[in-house]
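This section describes the prediction task in plain terms. A model, or a person checking by hand, is given the sequence of a single protein chain and must write out its three-dimensional structure as a string of tokens. No templates, partner chains or ligands are provided. The sample shown here is typical of the held-out split.
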Amino acid sequence: MKSDNNEANVELIKHIEKFKDRVREVKLEKNVFLGEYKERVLGALTREQVKEKGIYPEIEKILENKEAEKMIISREIDFNDIKKYISLAKKKNISYKMIDGLLYTGEIGLVIASSDALSKPLENPVIKTKKEKFEEKKLSEIYYQSMGSKICDFHKEIIDKELPEYKHGYEKIGIMDSLFGTKCPICEKLGGKKRG
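The expected answer:
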């Protein structure tokens, strides 16, 4: 009888330890995702991603999701870098707040979350960097570096085909641009009309 009690006590202690570990894990997740539980996060960007030129099209798409209810932004990021996302949240009627990062760990700078657990929680809600996406398509780093620039028809077509979500990040070199000597930075780096 005493042996049964000891076994029951050992099982209870194991169960309590397992529960404590899970609570610790959840607290850490909340600290990483700017105070949000991971199972509520639809998408997140690192501070470096928020600072990049342009808006991540994935964020715009996530804000259209009916489960998206709020955007949380780290106050550690310069306001000039976050105002584009604040404008986007306002446009999509999503509430946003800026928070101090004293209690938060990691590199997350922006989170879009629901008030409840998602119907299909994400394993990793952090969006891939633009640079990673260009690398996946085997495109030279110059494509990424040229975002916001005017580029030739040849390279614009490659962007439009390979990464259509970023096609608005480039302009075609027009006739007037050509007359004033504007050159495609991708052609310059790759040595002509090459895919790279």
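For orientation: Strands lie at 41-46, 70-74, 95-99, 108-113, 150-151, 171-172.
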